Amino acid sequence: MDRQTISRLAHAHHPVAAPLSDGSVAELLERALAPEEEGRALDLGCGQGVWLLRALAARPRWRAVGVDLDTAALTWARESAEALGVQRRIGLHHLDAREFTDREPFELVLNVGATHAFGGLLPTLDAARRHLAPGGRVLVGEAFWEREPSSAALAGLGAAREEYANLATTVDRVVADGWTPVYGRVSSQQEWDDYEFSWTGSLAQWALDHPEHPDAADARAAADLHRAEWLHGYRGTLGFVVLVLRRD
């Protein structure tokens, strides 16, 4: 079973692919979209387009563009846009986010949990800068170390110690790059636990509901492995922060 399929099944009951509650998502979007009544939003790595769809639902005069390489996720986004009646206000592109160009800038650029597509946080912000209208905002979500990672945490994440920094250093790097945080949200332990239990539970439930499917065993194995890596490895070690940024 390929990674993209596993991710879609795992996020069936938690479509925001990050450890954030619906309330946190709504508050972050409110801060990122305000005060403009109309504008354009760009999500560089939109997945199923959840952030953009919620933005369009909250702002009936905004338009949006999403870019991703996951064809099935984009199909889901298009179907959801039609169901919400916002399909005329959103454009979805099957494209590497690094290759996307547009003739007009955007009032809001998003990348939540997909900075790996650009090679890290600062390269992601550099890409966002190229698309941002004067006075616009960037909504970016990135992991950080809540505490020094153990070997079990690093193994469970398949990460290197240098891949992330602590929260203070993460924010300092953003500020040194010429950005000003105007809002931020750190995921709580409850949000992390809800997210991880939903991720592993949704995938395991699919395997139980489809025992004859050729991928059922792989799905169950992936759920069991992920759960063990989280509970015995990185729980309480990996943090997640979403920042609303403006240029100096």
From TrEMBL:
GO BP annotations listed: methylation
GO MF terms held by the record: methyltransferase activity
Domain (Methyltransferase) ranges: 42-136
InterPro entries associated with the record: CFA/CMAS (IPR050723), Methyltransf_25 (IPR041698), SAM-dependent_MTases_sf (IPR029063)
UniProt keywords, alphabetically: Methyltransferase, Transferase
Name under which the protein is recorded: Class I SAM-dependent methyltransferase
